[in-house]
Structure formats: C-alpha cells, structure tokens
C-alpha cells in the first residue's frame, strides 16, 4: 500500500526536530453547493530543524516516530522574503 503524501504550510516550528503542518482541503458542500475549506494539523519529523513558520512543505506517512509524529517532511520550500 503506498504511503500518503500531503502538502501544507508549517504553522509551528518551536519543538525540536518537529514541525506542525496545516493541510487544507477544499470540497463542494453536497447540499449548499458551496466550496468549503477544512484544515487539519499534522506533527511531522524534521531531522535538520531547517523549516520555519510559513514554509510550504510536503509530508509523507511513516512508521511512528513518537506518540503524535507519524509523518516525515519530504521537501520544504522557503518563501522568498
């Protein structure tokens, strides 16, 4: 079974070797026919501690690293600022 890959934004990088990533999904409401946004936060393993808040990242499922971390960072793009 392939591992899921999600794309999101880093919302917290305060913990050591851990980032919190918000992944947003958009769908059309079945009754209202309106586009609805839902988001979910994932704790992901960042071995190099290189990511900061606002970075766009891709995360992939992995074996559990700790109680909450079951995702690892694949790649991160620092914003141009």
From TrEMBL:
<dbReference type="Pfam" id="PF00366">
    <property type="entry name" value="Ribosomal_S17"/>
</dbReference>
<dbReference type="GO" id="GO:0019843">
    <property type="term" value="F:rRNA binding"/>
</dbReference>
<protein>
    <recommendedName>
        <fullName>Small ribosomal subunit protein uS17</fullName>
    </recommendedName>
</protein>
<comment type="similarity">
    <text>Belongs to the universal ribosomal protein uS17 family.</text>
</comment>
<dbReference type="GO" id="GO:0022627">
    <property type="term" value="C:cytosolic small ribosomal subunit"/>
</dbReference>
<comment type="function">
    <text>One of the primary rRNA binding proteins, it binds specifically to the 5'-end of 16S ribosomal RNA.</text>
</comment>
<keyword id="KW-0689">Ribosomal protein</keyword>
<dbReference type="InterPro" id="IPR000266">
    <property type="entry name" value="Ribosomal_uS17"/>
</dbReference>
<dbReference type="InterPro" id="IPR019984">
    <property type="entry name" value="Ribosomal_uS17_bact/chlr"/>
</dbReference>
<dbReference type="GO" id="GO:0003735">
    <property type="term" value="F:structural constituent of ribosome"/>
</dbReference>
<keyword id="KW-0687">Ribonucleoprotein</keyword>
<dbReference type="GO" id="GO:0006412">
    <property type="term" value="P:translation"/>
</dbReference>
<comment type="subunit">
    <text>Part of the 30S ribosomal subunit.</text>
</comment>
<keyword id="KW-0699">rRNA-binding</keyword>
<keyword id="KW-0694">RNA-binding</keyword>
<dbReference type="InterPro" id="IPR012340">
    <property type="entry name" value="NA-bd_OB-fold"/>
</dbReference>
